[in-house]
Design goal:
The protein is α+β, with helices and mostly antiparallel strands. It has 6 helices and 7 strands. Helices cover about 35% and strands about 35% of the residues. It has a 7-stranded mixed beta sheet with strand order 1-2-3-4-5-7-6.
Amino acid sequence: MKIRNAQLSDAFKIAQIHIASWRSAYKGMVPDDYLDKLSVEKRKRGWEEIINGLDASGQCLIVAEDKGEIVSFISAGAARKYNLEFDGELYAIYSDPAYYGHGAGTILFEKCTDYLKQEGFSNFYCWVLEDNKIGRRFYERIGGEIVGNQKETVEIAGKKLQEVMYGWTL
């Protein structure tokens, strides 16, 4: 598996993986009609904006390739919430559902933590849907611990969902 920083030309594939992963991981949690309407083109534009701003934002976006094809990605940087004890945040980590359990996520997580350490972060957090058992098992397997009673309610397509926070010390 090849690990590298994302490039602008990767935005379409990152968007495809993002949506495929949502449709797989969040089925039964997020309304099906919302998942069905997710737009690769819209997500692509969002990822292009992120990639274009990487240098200025201090954010990392790293991809994993298998046989020349992107199969997973991770994004992290400064914490977006300033009232927490964490200075870094894992924004996103998604894999092509065909690659769940193949190790790409773990490898990307290690590269991401290396980046955060190098940038001077001391710790970081991420939010995960409370009912996302697969995601929660992954975070626990790579050393994430639930942070106290930190919970947030998010609304997706009119449905209120609970998120729990996982944290890591670098």
